[in-house]
């Protein structure tokens, strides 16, 4: 999972709101670089995520905060001028989420100060620079809002992994096709049409990519049809 680093945040309310967003999307590691005193406002904004604030790891410098990570992403609201530096790797929040979904090391994403973000020196310590595309009429977002969007993009990929169901195996699909073939026999389907029909049926089912649950549902139906035709 990805850790969140907040570099010298000025508004304790933003820190609390980010803790709440982290809890919403299942993130548990918060790093703070020279944070303000976290008092009632921060805990009020965190609501039920106060434990994240209590357990946050505090550092005196960005360099110290990133020591244990294998991949560090910085963030920026306006990359138009920064893009002149060809050594920097720019990713939208969605692209960043896709890039790290199979990454096995420790990942951190750093958010800078509310007024001027990360310094050039801090950005140079990062492996990529992440941004949330916004209207050119108003590029800058509230710190906690920007962080929430990035967290959501990462969380969305995790949800897709969990929701991805196991597909029916080649052996199971073959049993399905055999049952279909027997049904054609039972109904005395015309011989000259049988080969083409079988091929079309296999192509359709191949495109459908049945999950195991779908396979067994259809297989139950096919078996019932077979039984009645007999």
Strand order of the largest sheet: 3-2-1-6-4-7-5
Q: Determine the CATH superfamily of the largest domain.
A: SPOUT methyltransferase, trefoil knot domain
By DSSP (H or I, 4+ residues per run), the number of helices equals 10
The residue fraction in helices comes out at 40-55%
Mean pLDDT: 87
End-to-end distance, in Å? Answer: 55 Å
Q: What is the CATH fold-level name of the largest domain?
A: Alpha/beta knot
Textual characterization of the structure:
The protein has 230 residues and is α/β, with parallel strands linked by helices. The chain has two domains: 2-163, Alpha/beta knot (3-Layer(aba) Sandwich); 170-229, no CATH class. The protein is built from ten helices and seven strands. Strands 3-2-1-6-4-7-5 form a seven-stranded parallel β-sheet. Strand 1, helix 1 (12-24) and strand 2 (30-33) form a beta-alpha-beta unit. Helix 1 (12-24) packs parallel to helix 2 (40-46), helix 5 (93-100) crosses helix 7 and helix 8 (170-186) packs antiparallel against helix 9. The longest helix is centred in the middle third of the chain and has 21 residues, at 143-163.
Summarize the structure in short:
The protein is an alpha/beta fold. The chain has ten helices and seven strands.
Could you give the topology of this structure?
Blueprint: E1 2-7, H1 12-24, E2 30-33, H2 40-46, H3 50-54, E3 57-59, H4 62-65, E4 71-75, E5 90-92, H5 93-100, E6 107-111, H6 120-124, E7 128-131, H7 143-163, H8 170-186, H9 191-208, H10 212-229
């Amino acid at each position: 999972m990805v850790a969140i680093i907040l570099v010298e945040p000025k508004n304790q309310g933003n820190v609390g709101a980010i803790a709440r967003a982290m809890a919403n999307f299942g993130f548990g590691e918060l790093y703070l670089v020279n944070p303000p005193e976290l008092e009632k406002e921060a805990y009020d904004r965190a609501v039920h995520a106060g434990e994240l604030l209590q357990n946050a790891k505090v550092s005196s410098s960005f360099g110290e905060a990133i020591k244990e990570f294998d991949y560090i992403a910085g963030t920026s609201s306006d990359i138009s001028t920064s893009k002149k530096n060809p050594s920097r790797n720019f990713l939208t929040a969605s692209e960043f989420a896709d890039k790290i979904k199979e990454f096995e090391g420790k990942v951190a994403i750093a958010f800078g100060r509310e007024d001027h973000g990360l310094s050039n020196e801090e950005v140079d310590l990062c492996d990529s620079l992440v941004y949330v595309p916004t209207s050119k009429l108003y590029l800058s977002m509230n710190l906690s809002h920007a962080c929430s969007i990035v967290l959501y993009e990462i969380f969305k990929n995790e949800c897709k992994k969990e929701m991805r169901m196991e597909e029916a195996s080649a052996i199971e699909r073959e049993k399905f096709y055999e049952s279909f073939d027997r049904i054609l026999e039972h109904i005395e389907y015309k011989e000259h049409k049988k080969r083409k029909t079988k091929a079309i049926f296999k192509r359709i089912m191949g495109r459908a990519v049945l999950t195991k649950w779908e396979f067994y549902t259809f297989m139950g139906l096919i078996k019932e049809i077979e039984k009645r035709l007999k």
